Amino acid sequence: METSDLTTTITGQDRAKLADMLFEIGAVKFGAFRIKLHETRPDAPLSPIYLNFRLLRSYPEALGFAAELLLKLAGPLEYELLADIPTGITPIVAVMTYLGKVPMISPRKETKAYGLGVAIDGEYKEGQRVLLVDDLISAGDSKFDAIEKLQKGGLVVEDVLVVVDRQQGGAAMLTEKGFRPHAVVTISQLLERYRQTGAIDEDRYHQVVEYLGLK
Fold first, then answer.
1. Burial of 152 (0-12, 13-18, 19+ CB in 10 A)
2. Which architecture characterizes domain 12-212 according to CATH?
3. pTM
4. Helices within the chain (DSSP H only)
5. Is-contact 145 117, C-beta < 8 A?
6. In whole angstroms, what is the distance from residue 38 CA to residue 41 CA?
7. What is the pLDDT of residues 32-47, one digit of tens each?
8. Domain range annotation of the chain
9. DSSP for residue 144
10. What is the rounded CA–CA span in Å between residue 152 and residue 147?
11. Which of 93, 118, 177, 195 shows the greatest Cβ crowding within 10 Å of its Cβ?
């Protein structure tokens, strides 16, 4: 379905504005950070960049703008429901639900051992198309967990929408499994914007590029 009148192409200006907003609120930081990768590879080098989309819930303008861009990106896609991967993206998907007038469901990380014991929060019908939304894609593991829960509920998942693609193989993994990944912006585009504006210097730029294997 077409979600709303926001279904236009994302422009370079849109991406630049989002990049600036993320940097200004501290959602993009540079330094030395442990990331999800270190849960399985504790000896891996620390990441020189960290993206924290949980911060956006405290910044309504950035939150709303991210939701608008995701809806623009979703414009040509066919879906009946939005599904978040809790919890970093959850407030953004809630705004998408309101703006696009599309119902939202949430696959649980863990099924409740009490009450109804449901694996998916919200109302849905078997056979409905779901657009899965997350903040980032890196290795893709969390996407497959959520997709499996949705499919077990009888739902159809074909497209995965993210704000930022870290360009670390996750998009390729999804494609290989038959899913279509879509990103508002890539990590390369963020880095190039910060380089152009002087938010980071040349040394930091090349450090992150080398770490991510972008060149």
1. exposed
2. 3-Layer(aba) Sandwich (3.40)
3. 0.91
4. 12-24, 37-40, 60-74, 90-100, 141-152, 170-176, 187-197, 202-212
5. no
6. 4
7. 998 877 788 898 899 9
8. 12-212
9. H
10. 9
11. 93
DSSP-based three-state secondary structure for 208? helix
- Pick from 131, 149, 134, 40: nearest CA to 87: 134
Each residue's pLDDT tens digit, 63-87: 999 999 999 999 999 999 999 999 9
| pLDDT tens-digit map of 76-123 | 999 999 999 999 999 999 999 999 999 999 999 875 544 445 799 999
Distance in angstroms (rounded) separating the CA atoms of residues 171 and 184: 13
User: Per residue, what are the HEC states of 99-119?
Assistant: HHCCCEEEECCCCCCCCCCCC
Nearest C-alpha neighbor of 149 from the set 106, 182, 206: 106
Q: Is the dihedral of CA 164, 165, 171, 174 positive or negative?
A: negative
What single-letter amino acid sits at 94?
Answer: A
The whole-angstrom separation of Cα 128 and Cα 194 is 40
Structure confidence by residue, pLDDT tens digits, 142-200: 799 999 999 999 999 999 999 999 998 999 999 999 999 999 999 999 999 999 999 99
